[in-house]
């Protein structure tokens, strides 16, 4: 069958592909150290699972409103007001099939052919592909390790044209772990206000922060910025609920209504009993989030130090998320070749930077246990030593 042009121009997710390959090798009995997965290695906290089980037993097994269970929309709005100082009501929130699908819904209802969407690189693999699926044009702005892979206000200003519709901001960042400081967020907000563009803030890693790093949601900068902000978030990363597929989009009511119409004609509601797990996640004590964060913090300290002691590698200090972003330029190997050889010869899985729009780098996910991290870093060191 002749496939539609819209799918032919989409690049498949390299992170999903490499994670699958590493899993297949493991299943075949190979001792693989995998640093490829973009998901916490913890089980979903017990009280969240219990709430979903209870919902099942209570018969929460039927179709619900396409925009989500009213109690969950209310809990999310409350969370956005309390945690992020964003004045949203339930009507400003739609529950989606993960943060990925909330961003997809946004692109589908907001982007017209010809519209430009500004995406700083290294970027999360799905942003440019979603923009293309919507018929828009991704405008990639490369950043450098010197700016901790952050887009500067001058770069943002220079990238804006009369076709720009949206700016995608992701802090803490996947793949770099970079977190914009409140001052940097305010400076970017100033540029947004000089124009009529919107900003979508992907805050899926907001709870995974280290040292005394602060997360400022750009919509909280001022009421004027709030009007131009859309928030995408979800339960996957903070609550270790990747497979549950629950996320959300918050923004102006007219936009949320449009995404709701799209969902009504495509997916309908997110799995009803999964939404009850999400309600428990938001309305219960947050110790589980903090405990996972502490585990990540310990691994981060170890791996950052360990990688930077390997001659030829240079890692940027991540202030959030669970990724280490490593410069491999001194090895003069394309990042795909680096990762393929490392996986084949040393059974270590990482994601090539080219997947995030920046060759000469790799992403190491440290959402795995310390023993794997220690062994994997030994193998990485042996590999790099032999290549230099
Ligand atoms: C994981 C992730 C998401 C969303 O994941 P879901 O599982 O769909 O909730 C969104 N943005 C980034 C940057 C991510 O890493």
UniProtKB/TrEMBL annotation:
Species in which this protein is naturally found: Leptolyngbya iicbica LK
Cofactor: pyridoxal 5'-phosphate
Domain of life: Bacteria
Pfam families for this protein: Aminotran_1_2
Gene3D superfamilies xref list: Aspartate Aminotransferase, domain 1 (3.90.1150.10), Type I PLP-dependent aspartate aminotransferase-like (Major domain) (3.40.640.10)
Annotated PROSITE patterns: AA_TRANSFER_CLASS_1
Family classification: Belongs to the class-I pyridoxal-phosphate-dependent aminotransferase family.
Alphabetical keyword list: Aminotransferase, Pyridoxal phosphate, Transferase
PANTHER family: ASPARTATE AMINOTRANSFERASE (PTHR46383)
Domain Aminotransferase class I/classII large: 31-380
Enzyme Commission code: 2.6.1.-
UniProt GO MF annotations: pyridoxal phosphate binding; transaminase activity
Name under which the protein is recorded: Aminotransferase
Any single GO BP term: amino acid metabolic process
Transmembrane segments: none
InterPro entries: Aminotransferase_I/II_large, AspAT/PAT-like, NHTrfase_class1_PyrdxlP-BS, PyrdxlP-dep_Trfase, PyrdxlP-dep_Trfase_major, PyrdxlP-dep_Trfase_small
UniProt keyword Transferase present: yes
């Amino acid at each position: 069958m002749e496939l539609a042009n819209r799918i032919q121009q989409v690049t498949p997710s390299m992170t999903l592909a490499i994670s699958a390959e590493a899993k297949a090798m493991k299943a075949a009995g190979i001792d693989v150290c995998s640093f490829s997965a973009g998901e916490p290695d913890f089980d979903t906290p017990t009280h969240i699972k219990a709430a979903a089980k209870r919902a099942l037993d209570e018969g929460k097994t039927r179709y619900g409103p396409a925009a989500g269970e009213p109690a969950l929309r209310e809990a999310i709005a409350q969370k956005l007001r309390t945690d992020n100082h964003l004045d949203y009501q339930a009507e400003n929130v739609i529950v989606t099939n993960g943060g990925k699908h909330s961003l997809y819904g946004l692109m589908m209802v907001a982007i017209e052919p010809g519209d430009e969407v500004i995406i700083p690189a290294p970027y999360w693999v799905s942003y440019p592909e979603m923009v293309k699926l919507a018929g828009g044009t991704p405008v990639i702005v490369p950043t450098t390790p010197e700016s901790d892979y952050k887009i500067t206000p001058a770069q943002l200003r220079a990238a804006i044209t009369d076709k720009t519709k949206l700016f995608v901001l992701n802090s803490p960042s996947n793949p770099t772990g970079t977190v914009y400081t409140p001052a940097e967020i305010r400076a970017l907000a100033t540029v947004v206000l000089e124009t009529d563009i919107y900003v979508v803030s992907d805050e899926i890693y907001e709870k995974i922060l280290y040292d005394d790093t602060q997360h400022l949601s750009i919509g909280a900068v001022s009421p004027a910025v709030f009007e131009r902000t859309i928030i995408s978030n979800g339960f996957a990363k903070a609550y270790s609920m990747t497979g549950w597929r629950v996320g959300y989009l918050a923004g102006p009511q007219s936009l949320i209504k449009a995404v709701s119409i799209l969902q009504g004609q495509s997916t309908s509601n997110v799995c009803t009993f999964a939404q009850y797990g999400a309600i428990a996640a938001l309305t219960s004590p947050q110790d589980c989030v903090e405990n996972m964060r502490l585990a990540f913090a310990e691994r981060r300290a170890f791996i950052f130090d360990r990688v930077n002691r390997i001659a030829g590698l240079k890692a940027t200090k991540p202030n959030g998320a669970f990724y280490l972003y490593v410069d491999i330029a001194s090895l003069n190997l394309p990042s795909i070749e680096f990762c393929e050889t490392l996986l084949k010869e040393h059974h270590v899985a990482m994601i090539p930077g080219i997947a995030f729009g920046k060759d000469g780098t790799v992403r190491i996910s440290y959402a795995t246990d310390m023993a794997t991290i220690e062994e994997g870093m030994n193998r990485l060191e042996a590999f790099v030593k032999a290549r230099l």
